[in-house]
Amino acid sequence: MHKYRCASCGNVFKSDYTAEKCPKCRSRILIHLEGEPKRKASCSSCGGGSCSSCGGRCGC
């Protein structure tokens, strides 16, 4: 479950999937408040570019 706030109209809504637009005003500018991020955060040891420096332990 994801929770978003629309930057244009301030509407706060929940969605089972990654939302693309605000259901109230149809704006595409959404602020993700809760839930799994769209992208996995990059590893601090390899920067997300190459796992050779951490031996693949980071899983990125």
Describe the structure in your own words.
The protein has 60 residues and is mainly beta. It has a domain at 1-39. It is 0% helix and 23% strand. A three-stranded antiparallel β-sheet has the order 2-1-3, with no helix packed on it. The chain is elongated and about 45 Å long. The model has no long low-confidence stretch (mean pLDDT 82).
Strands, helices and their partners?
Blueprint (H helix, E strand, L loop, with lengths): L1 E5 L5 E4 L14 E5 L26
Antiparallel strand pairs: 1-2, 1-3
- Characterize the overall form: elongated
Order of helices and strands: EEE
> How much is the average pLDDT?
82
Largest sheet: 3 strands, antiparallel
- Overall strand count: 3
Features:
mainly beta, 3-stranded antiparallel β-sheet, single chain, 60 residues
Give a quick summary of the entry.
With 60 residues, this protein is mostly beta strands. The chain contains no helices and three strands.
